[in-house]
Structure formats: structure tokens, C-alpha cells
From TrEMBL:
EC id: 1.1.2.4
Matches recorded under Gene3D superfamilies: 3.30.465.10, 3.30.70.2740, Vanillyl-alcohol Oxidase, Chain A, domain 4
Keyword Phosphoprotein: no
Main localization, broad class: mitochondrion
PANTHER family for the chain: D-LACTATE DEHYDROGENASE, D-LACTATE DEHYDROGENASE, MITOCHONDRIAL-RELATED
Cofactor(s) required for function per UniProt: FAD
Keywords: FAD, Flavoprotein, Mitochondrion, Oxidoreductase, Transit peptide
Subcellular location: Mitochondrion
Taxonomic superkingdom: Eukaryota
Transmembrane segments: none
Gene: LOC101863614
Protein name per Swiss-Prot or TrEMBL: D-lactate dehydrogenase (cytochrome)
């Protein structure tokens, strides 16, 4: 019933983890049929140099940045063109061999881990920025284009692509996970920013989800196929081109930090800022434990308290007024220690350190690796859910700094865990699971931005209900009747 890698993993795991592992890995597995002949056929499509069965290459492609156990693909294929992707997909489909698209491996829910072996399809060599339409505020990229590289390329155009997960991820991988980050409160997530996708279906057909070459801000033309593939986590097809929205680089940017004595006061401030209609670019929460890690790792000297990191974007005219209104709201909620960063160097230092929080948290326990969580609730429930989460962390006696895209009601705990310490691993798993249940109990979701992957499949059922997940399974069957695309992900 279980594949070789999973069996090995189960053998190594502590018996205390067994119940949840059994549930997570309980999906029926199929035997991958990667024979020598099959590998030769792959080589005849993409060339010898683009096919690797070397252990190091398979290992590099068998995991992402999450705590999930590695799942080795049998073979890694590097595609250089849409035709490569199409022919490799058709070959896998005809032979019922699993196919796992690989972007840049920065995912946090085990999305690229090959649970049943098969072919890992690395698309990083397809790295062309096809076009930038500056007047239309959009651009079209191949799947190897990374978000930071895209923004460097755009520098002279006065435009930028705002979606900023902490890692430098591929833009198409970000489509696949429906990523977001610190700018989502102003600019939205990938869902709001993708205009069109070219997708290679498992049988090799190529579709454009909004029609070939279309890149309008609006459309009422039929079903929203584009958003069906946003967040599909490689389970429906391989994204080979994405057209995404761009924005003008703001004339002026002000970053700021302030502190509070309670989570409630910090979140009340956020709600009031949003109620005043102030178009904040970033509204990030860091709890006292996170600030301690932040100070230690990034050499800051911030007051250790519940804190908000803020950013304002806009024309110079009026931005100071926005800042002053927010300052008043901070004062009204007993906030203190407000400091601004206006020069680019200072701002970049602050946000770079925020993006590096995961590594800062690991520095709290030498030898640890991150175990991250991701829940999202309607903002009115946020203080209660954060406070209850802090109680769970305290009760379990583990270290768990909290960081949140609080303007969106989305937050994470970064648990630094030594993975050999199964007792702590289990405690952390329990807290994450209970956090997800708590969030769902408050009309929230078990994942705001990291996706379901292999880690949250049982939670998806609880979130959507059996009927909802069954409707998703039917969509999956329509596009992928042989079930070759990234098996064992999203669905149990
Ligand atoms: C330090 C740090 C910080 C953050 C994050 C990671 C890390 C390491 N992330 C998570 C991560 O960066 C995000 O999920 C990216 O969208 C993953 O993009 P990759 O290209 O790395 O996809 P990766 O290669 O990891 O693949 C992820 C999933 O997408 C599929 N996929 C990839 N490319 C595909 C393609 N071309 N076609 C079809 N399927 C494809 C894969 O099969 C897999 O299921 C995050 N996220 C977030 O939303 N907000 C955040 O703040 C952060 N912060
Ligand atoms: C490791 C993750 C929790 C990273 C993330 O999503 C973030 O820093 O916002
Ligand atoms: Mn995040």
C-alpha cells in the first residue's frame, strides 16, 4: 500500500507520530513504471543532458523548504521548451507514470516531494521574460523566471511585481501555490494578479486559460479557468507561461515600526487603520518572541513587545497625512516607540530581516529546522486566535514565534525544531493541527498562502466538507483522468 520512501519514513518515525502519518500517507499508491526504456524515451525528447537519475539531483528535487520528509523522484527531466513539456507529459500519461512540476523548491507543504516516485519536471531552464507591456501594466513570463529577477528586469520601467513571499520563488510556482506575502493587503495575492496562464495538460495538449494572447484586467467570458489553475499545486497540469499584473513604483515609501502591550491593541489598530480606508502596503505583526529572534539574528535593538511593521506607498502629496492618521490610531490604542524608516537602505534592511524571520527563529535552537504554520481568519477573530495560539505554545513548553500578515488576518508560527527530537516534533504537529481547527472554527481557513500540499489534506476535507472535496476530485479527474499529476497532493 505504501511506496518504498514512505515505508522507510514510517519505520524511522516514532510510534507517537503513527496515527497522523497513517492518515496523511493513507492514499492508495500506484507503482511508478520508470523503466530503462522509459528513461531512453525521455532522453529522445529532451536530450541526454536534460535527464538525470543521479542520486544528488533526485535528492535536490525530492523536497522543498518544509519539514516534510523527502520523496525521491525516479528521474529528473529539465525541460527547455513548451514542446518538451508537452511530449514528456504525454509520455508519462500514456505510461501512467507520475509527473511532478518543479519550480524552485521553496514551497512549505511538501508540494514537490515525489510520494510515488516518477518524473520530476524541472522547468527552470525556461526562463524567458517574453514581454513587458508597460502601458498596460502587465508582463508575460516563462516558468523559470524568479520574482526577484523579474523585479530587477523591471527596474527601468518604473513598474514592479508586488507579490513577495519570503523566498525568491518562481512566478509560475507562485501561481501554482497561490502565493502572497507582505504586500497582499494592498496589492492582493496571486489570485488577483494573474491574467492568463498557458498550461500543458497531462495528455500533452496546451491551453491558454483566458484565450491565446488575452491579457485584460476584466473578463466575463465563461468559467474562470485561470483561477482554477492558480493554487492547483501541480495537480492539474504544468504552467508554462504566466501573464501577471504590474504596478507603478510608488513615488514615496515610508516604513515604520511600533509596539503594543497586548495583541488585542495591535490588532485593534490594524482594524481601525483599514476602516479609515488608508491603503496600507504592508501591515505585519511580530510577537514578542519573534522580536527577540529578530533582534538576535539581524542585529536590531527593538523593544521586545507585540509589534507592528507598517509600510505606506503613494504619491508624496498626502502620504504624510496618511502616516499622521495612523500615528493617531497607534496612540489611541496605547502603542509606543513609533519609529520610521524612509531611506531605501533602512527600509530594505528592515524588510530583508522580516523576510529572514524563519532563519532568525531557527537561530533560537541550534541545529533546528523550521516547522511553519499558516492559518487565516476574518480579522475580527484574529486577536482571540493569536492569544489562544500563544497559550497552546506556552502550555506545550515549546518555542514558537508568531509572525503575521495581520492586515489579511493571516499568521504563522515558525517553530524551530530539531527533527530528531520526535517528542517536540509531535507537540508542534499537535499545535499546528489545533491552530488549523481553531481557525476553521472561526470561519477561517487552514492555509492562507502556503497551500495544502501533503501536509493539510485531511484539513481540506474538514474545511470544504466531503462534498466540496469530491467536487474538486471530479475536476481533477476531468483534467487528469490517469491521476499522474503530482499524486498524493491536495487530496487524500
Ligand atoms: C523563507 C520562506 C519564506 C516564504 C516561503 C518560503 C520560504 C522558504 N513561502 C513559500 C513559497 O515561497 C511559495 O509557496 C512559492 O510560491 C513556491 O514557489 P516555487 O517556485 O518554489 O514552487 P515549488 O517548486 O516549491 O513548487 C510548489 C508547488 O507548485 C507546483 N509547481 C511549481 N511550479 C509549477 C509549474 N510551473 N506548473 C505547475 N505546478 C508547479 C509544484 O508541483 C508544487 O506542488 C511563502 N509563500 C507565501 O505565499 N507567502 C510567504 O510569505 C512565503 N514566505
Ligand atoms: C516560513 C514561512 C512561515 C514564511 C512566511 O510565509 C512568512 O515569512 O511570511
Ligand atoms: Mn507568509
Amino acid at each position: 500500500m505504501f511506496s518504498r520512501q514512505v515505508k522507510q519514513f514510517l519505520k524511522r518515525s516514532s510510534s507517537t507520530l503513527w496515527p497522523y502519518l497513517q492518515r496523511n500517507y493513507g492514499a492508495p499508491s500506484r507503482q511508478a513504471k520508470v523503466t530503462n526504456d522509459f528513461v531512453s524515451s525521455l532522453k529522445s525528447i529532451v536530450g541526454d543532458k536534460n535527464v538525470s537519475t543521479a542520486d544528488a539531483v533526485r535528492e535536490q528535487h525530492g523536497h522543498d523548504e518544509s519539514h516534510h520528509e523527502i520523496g525521491l523522484p525516479d528521474v529528473v527531466v529539465f525541460a527547455e521548451s513548451v514542446q518538451h513539456v508537452s511530449e514528456v507529459s504525454k509520455l508519462c500519461n500514456d505510461n501512467v507514470v507520475s509527473l511532478i512540476p518543479f519550480g524552485s523548491g521553496t514551497g512549505l507543504e511538501g508540494g514537490v516531494n515525489a510520494l510515488e516516485g516518477g518524473v520530476c519536471l524541472d522547468v527552470t531552464k525556461m526562463d524567458e521574460i517574453i514581454e513587458v507591456n508597460a502601458e498596460d501594466f502587465d508582463c508575460t513570463v516563462r516558468p523559470g523566471v524568479m520574482r526577484i529577477g523579474l523585479n530587477n528586469y523591471l527596474r527601468d520601467t518604473g513598474l514592479f511585481f508586488p507579490i513577495d513571499p519570503g523566498a525568491d520563488a518562481s512566478v509560475c510556482g507562485m501561481c501554482a501555490t497561490s502565493a502572497s506575502g507582505t504586500n497582499a493587503v494592498r496589492y492582493g495575492t496571486m489570485r488577483e494578479n494573474v491574467l492568463n496562464l498557458e498550461v500543458v495538460l497531462p495528455d500533452g495538449r496546451v491551453i491558454d486559460t483566458a484565450g491565446k494572447g488575452r491579457r485584460t484586467k476584466k473578463t466575463s467570458a465563461g468559467y474562470n479557468l485561470t483561477n482554477l489553475f492558480v493554487g492547483s499545486e501541480g495537480t492539474l497540469g504544468t504552467i508554462t507561461k504566466a501573464t501577471v499584473r504590474l504596478y507603478g513604483v510608488p513615488e514615496k515609501t515610508i516604513s515604520a515600526v511600533c509596539h503594543f502591550n497586548s495583541v488585542q491593541e495591535a490588532v485593534d489598530t490594524v482594524v481601525q487603520v483599514l476602516q479609515c480606508g488608508i491603503p496600507m502596503a504592508k501591515l505585519e505583526f511580530l510577537d514578542d518572541v519573534a522580536i527577540e529572534a529578530f533582534n538576535k539574528f539581524s542585529k536590531f535593538d527593538m523593544t521586545v513587545a507585540q509589534s507592528l511593521f507598517l509600510e505606506f506607498h503613494g504619491p508624496a502629496l498626502g502620504l504624510e497625512d496618511q502616516f499622521n492618521t495612523v500615528k493617531e490610531l497607534i496612540d489611541m490604542n496605547n502603542g509606543f516607540g513609533l519609529k520610521t524608516a524612509i531611506e531605501a537602505d533602512e527600509r530594505n534592511k528592515l524588510w530583508k530581516a522580516r523576510h529572514e524571520m524563519v532563519w532568525a527563529c531557527c537561530s533560537l535552537i541550534p541545529g533546528s529546522k523550521p516547522y511553519s504554520t499558516d492559518v487565516c481568519v476574518p480579522i475580527s477573530h484574529l486577536p482571540d486566535v493569536i492569544v489562544k495560539t500563544k497559550e497552546m505554545i506556552k502550555e506545550a513548553n515549546v518555542i514558537g514565534p508568531i509572525v503575521g500578515h495581520v492586515g489579511d488576518g493571516n499568521f504563522h508560527v515558525f517553530f524551530p525544531v530539531d527533527h530528531a527530537d520526535t517528542e517536540t516534533f509531535k507537540k508542534v504537529y499537535d499545535i499546528s493541527h489545533r491552530m488549523a481547527l481553531l481557525a476553521m472554527d472561526r470561519n477561517g481557513t487552514c492555509t492562507g498562502e502556503h497551500g495544502i500540499g501533503m501536509g493539510k489534506r485531511d484539513l481540506l476535507i474538514r474545511e470544504l466538507g466531503e462534498e466540496g472535496v469530491e467536487a474538486m476530485r471530479q475536476v481533477k479527474k476531468t483534467f487528469d483522468p490517469n491521476g499522474i499529476m503530482n499524486p498524493g497532493k491536495v487530496f487524500c
